[in-house]
Design brief:
heterodimer; A: 114 residues; mainly beta; four-stranded antiparallel beta sheet; 0% helix; B: 112 residues; globular
Chain lengths: 114, 112
C-alpha cells in the first residue's frame, strides 16, 4: 500500500514565524503535491513537484515555497506565517502526471496561526 | 472555466438506507472522473475512477455512474453503514492539465 505521511497532525504557530510542513512517501512516486483545504472550498493546489529539485506553482502559491531535495520528501514552507494561512494542509503523491494520475493523500496537518 | 458542483451539500440518512450523491462538472477536454471519500480530519481516499467511455464503476457498496454527454456523475451508496459518514468529493480530470479539479464535497452523516 502507498503510504504518505506528514510530520504533524496539528500545529500552532504565531504570526510571522517560519513554518515547515514535511511530507514523505514510500512508493518511489515521481510526483508530489501540496494542497490546502478550507471549509466550503475544494482542495486547492499550492505547489507540485514532478522530480527532485523541480517545482511548479499551483493555483495559490503566494506566501508559500517548497523544497524537494530527495525523491521521497516534499516540504512546504511558510516564510512568514499569517492568520489567513490557518488551514488544513494535505500532501499527495502520484506515479504519473496527466489526467490519469492517481493521487494518494497523507492524513493532513491542521495548522493554526495565531 | 473548469467547474464542479456537488449536491446536496449535506445529507443525513439512517443506517441501512441507500443514498445518491450528485456531481455536475464543466471540464474540457474531459478525461476521467474520480470519487474520493474523506473522513473528518483525514486525507481523501479514492473510491472509484471512470474514464470518459465508462458508464459505471463499483467498489463494494459504492457505485459511481457517469454520463459524459450531460456532464453528470452520481455516487450511489447501498445499505449505508455508520462508517460511511464522511465527505464525498467529485474530481473530474482534463486532458490538458496535470491538475485535478476538486468539488467542495457532500457531507454525509449516517445515524443509527
Amino acid at each position: 500500500d502507498v503510504k504518505v505521511t506528514q510530520s504533524s497532525r496539528y500545529l500552532v504557530k504565531r504570526t510571522g514565524e517560519k513554518v515547515f510542513l514535511e511530507c514523505v512517501q514510500d512508493m518511489d512516486h515521481e510526483n508530489m503535491f501540496w494542497y490546502r483545504q478550507d471549509p466550503g472550498l475544494g482542495l486547492r493546489l499550492i505547489y507540485f513537484s514532478y522530480d527532485v529539485k523541480m517545482k511548479e506553482k499551483g493555483d495559490i502559491p503566494e506566501g508559500y515555497s517548497v523544497s524537494r531535495e530527495k525523491k521521497e520528501r516534499f516540504s512546504l514552507i511558510l516564510e512568514s506565517a499569517s492568520t489567513n494561512q490557518t488551514s488544513m494542509y494535505l500532501c499527495a503523491s502520484s506515479r504519473s502526471l496527466g489526467p490519469y494520475n492517481e493521487q494518494f493523500f497523507g492524513p493532513g496537518t491542521r495548522l493554526t496561526v495565531l | 472555466k473548469n467547474q464542479v458542483e456537488q449536491s446536496p451539500q449535506s445529507l443525513i440518512i439512517l443506517e441501512g438506507k441507500n443514498c445518491t450523491l450528485q456531481c455536475n462538472y464543466t471540464v474540457s477536454p474531459f478525461s476521467n472522473l474520480r470519487w474520493y471519500k474523506q473522513d473528518t480530519g483525514r486525507g481523501p481516499v479514492s473510491l472509484t475512477i471512470m474514464t470518459f467511455s465508462e458508464n459505471t464503476k463499483s467498489n463494494g457498496r459504492y457505485t459511481a455512474t457517469l454520463d459524459a454527454d450531460t456532464k453528470q456523475s452520481s455516487l450511489h451508496i447501498t445499505a449505508s453503514q455508520l462508517s460511511d459518514s464522511a465527505s464525498y468529493i467529485c474530481v473530474p480530470g482534463a486532458y490538458n492539465t496535470d491538475k485535478l479539479i476538486f468539488g467542495t464535497g457532500t457531507r454525509l452523516q449516517v445515524f443509527p
